[in-house]
Amino acid sequence: MSKDARQGMILEGPLARGVFLVAMPSVAMMLVQTFNGFLDRFFISKLGPDALAAVTVCTSWMWLLLAAAMAVSTGTTALVGRFIGASKAQAPEESAQSLHDASSVTRQSILLSLLISMVVCAVLVLVRHPLLILQGLDKNAIPLAEPYLLVMAFGQPVQFLVMILGGVFRGLGDTTRPFYVTLGSVGVHAIGNMLLIPRIGIMGGALAMVCSQVLALALTVWFLRQSPVSAGLGGPWKLDATWAGRILKIGLLAALQQLIRVGSMLVFQGMIARTAAGGAAIAALGVGLLFESIAFMPGFGYSIASAAFVGQNLGAGNIKRANAAAWAATWQAIAVMSVMGVVCYVFAEPFARFFLQHGEDAARNAKVDETLALTVSYLKIAALSEPFLALGMGLIGALQGAGETLSPTVLTAVTMVLIRLPLAWFLLQHFGMTGAWWAMSLSTMIQGICTIFVFRQGRWRKIKV
By C-alpha distance, which of 126, 130, 125, 129 is closest to 150? Predict the structure, then answer.
């Protein structure tokens, strides 16, 4: 099926099939990114558990800082989706204005992302060492983490732009072109890892990532020039307070949600880094999250489809179809992620052994054995929460597509901060690292269940963007 036909199914046609066809390129894209993550960690793992711990902590800080990009990206997706949906349901004159507004949102989002990313880059360069100390990173891992984080900091403006323009395509309901972008960037990243990490160590992984993001940006801009918003991109390239306010009104709460989610993970990492397991626990978490991403990456794909369907159908005034699409995407996500959760449980040990291999050094081998045991226990416990994670991802994607970001933010704060962290602290004292893994899994289950009640309240149906 062509890209245009797939996008046309957002507003009309069989719903379950439409959701599936729109979601599949995003699911494929996320799985390709996951495979890329495997390769990245595989080459890093050759450098030992300290290198794995360094990359795990650096990645968490990068995700925290990318919350600023999410503020713009989420607002962009909601606004573009509304305008595109309205343009398809309006008379020609009104339709042209809606397309013009979608182009204006795109221009303003690009300007905002450049401004914010420069600030983030400067902050990260200046305080990278204190950030690593704050996480309780092992003294052997800090010299590895600092240069990695420095290179990633200078790549922030490019990464921000890729995320923001990805938000434009999500609003358009175009999931095919981002898939092609991902294929190209992953190819560059994989080749860069193979060539650079064996030669210059951990910094090679960071350089490979930045190079892949540069290619992703070039491809995204090229595809953007072929999109419905391209005609209006020749307008004034000057930051407009009104448009910026509309984008950030939606997106700031989504950014806060990301800050809470990743911030709680950083606190959790700091907590386990100060246990007797220390660096082994951090490395286990990094490997475990990588394999768990096999299960939750399809959830991201369905979350993207859910946002596109809800945003465009609200713009077209079809609330009933928006609601039905959100549930269709969520149920499909639950089905896929439940199967992947079983895979995660069954193949936990073979996967962990692939990334944690013995060498000739006895001390390193002892740390590998400890990390291996912790990774397997994490994966088997996390696998049980995958259906609940799918439930939350599908419905939160729908809420964000509608521009409703307040309720998911409050829910994230309650489950990730008020439930997960105290529970992790308590269970760590009584059950060690197994208790910490259970705290993560149980809080995920609670969040998924609570999302049902938030969505059914229906506040998202009345949001004005």
Answer: 125
pLDDT at 3 over 60: no
Contact 72, 165 (CB under 8 A): no
Query: Burial letters for 238-263: b for 16+ Cβ neighbours within 10 Å, e otherwise?
Result: eeeeebbebbbbbbbbbbbbbbbbbb
Predicted pLDDT of residue 328: 94
User: Would the CA dihedral through 390, 395, 396, 400 be positive or negative?
Assistant: positive
* pTM for the whole structure: 0.75
- Nearest Cα to 79, choosing from 164, 179, 151, 177? 164
Angle between helices 279-315 and 241-273 (to 10 degrees): 150
With beta carbons less than 8 A apart as the criterion, state whether 106 and 168 touch: yes
325, 331 Cβ separation under 8 angstroms = no
CA-to-CA dists, residue 110 to 103, 242, 400, angstroms: 11, 15, 20
Cβ 95 vs Cβ 83: under 8 Å: no
**Average confidence score pLDDT of the chain:** 85
Helix pair angle (142-154, 156-172), 10° resolution: 60
Listed by start position, the domains of the chain span 12-462
Please give the structure tokens belonging to residue 252: 């700031």
